[in-house]
Design a protein that fits this description.
CATH superfamily of the largest domain: Fructose-1,6-Bisphosphatase, subunit A, domain 1
Shape: globular
Strand content: 15-25%
Number of strands: 15
Strand order of the largest sheet: 4-3-5-6-7-8-9-10
Number of helices: 7
Radius of gyration: 18 Å
CATH topology of the largest domain: Fructose-1,6-Bisphosphatase, Chain A, domain 1
CATH class of the largest domain: Alpha Beta
Structural class: alpha+beta
Distance between the termini: 14 Å
């Protein structure tokens, strides 16, 4: 199938969620995001002696950092959610999935510090991400961006807010002259985007990369490798802001695995051509 033959992507109508549950979940997620923003802002790039944050080690490789802040924030998130939403299991980067999370109708997904390498280095492009996810994808999402003093929040059918202020619908985008966010982009993709007179930006945080599309700062975000907790919160923001989410084949998917494109529908086909080459 060619890009030109694809219809404009439209996700199926998501399952409705109890309005009271949405309100409670959004309020709790916002509180946790504020807590996380305060901790990250107070500790980024330093420990009590003025050096790096207290680091407990690395995981898959020497660049795969994990700090006390990652673990402290995830434990705090789990305690609060277990008390307020005992029926909804939690999936997190540092402590894995609660029992029955795979088959639960709704689950929380948290990344306590998305962009930990930036956090360790003192580079203010890191985020806290939390989402409530059901079979239709993220129903509630928050992303805390301490470096810019912003808490972004969205709930299904309720729009997208930045620090409590509704974000206006974006003007019709064009690719030429715009920015595209990517994480670990392939060299061929970067070259094609440049030839289309656009620029690629690698922020070191998947959550913030997708959030830039929701805000209208970037025309698209292309992610080759990521985990559910990296993107769930931001995908809720993007969908409520009018962006579409498609998988590597160009088909709509509320939370793809194995590669995703977040983009405004008007330029989806053009971005798919640049991605596919």
């Amino acid at each position: 199938m060619t890009v030109a033959s694809l219809p404009l992507p439209q996700l199926p109508t998501p399952e409705p969620v109890d309005p009271g549950l949405l309100s409670r979940a959004l309020e709790a997620a916002g509180r946790l995001a504020n807590d996380a923003a305060e901790v990250i802002s107070a500790t980024i790039g330093r420990d009590h002696s003025g050096g790096r944050p207290a680091t407990t080690g690395t995981k898959a490789n020497p660049f795969d950092w994990v700090t006390d802040t990652d673990r402290t924030l995830e434990r705090h998130t789990r305690r609060v959610l277990a008390a307020e939403f005992p029926l909804f299991p939690v999936v997190g980067e540092e402590y894995g999935a609660d029992a029955a999370a795979e088959h639960a109708p709704m689950r929380w997904v948290v990344d306590p510090v998305d962009g930990t390498a930036n956090y360790v280095a003192g580079l203010p492009w890191c985020a806290y991400s939390l989402a409530l996810v059901d079979a239709s994808g993220p129903a509630v999402g928050v992303v805390a961006d301490p470096g810019r003093g912003q808490i972004y929040a969205a709930a299904r059918g309720r729009g997208f807010r930045a620090n409590g202020v509704p974000v206006r619908a974006l003007a019709q985008p064009v690719v030429a002259g715009s920015l595209v966010c990517a994480e670990d982009p392939e060299a061929g993709f970067v070259s094609r985007v440049r030839n289309a007179h656009a620029g690629v930006r690698v922020l070191g945080s998947a959550a913030l990369a997708v959030t830039q599309v929701a805000l209208g700062h970037a025309v698209a975000a292309v992610l080759e490798r990521y985990h559910e907790w990296d993107v769930a919160g931001a995908l809720c923001l993007a969908r409520e802001a009018g962006a579409v989410v498609v998988d590597r084949s160009g088909r709509p998917d509320p939370m793809p695995s194995g590669g995703l494109l977040v983009v405004r529908p008007e330029v989806c086909h053009e971005m798919l051509r640049l991605w596919w080459g």
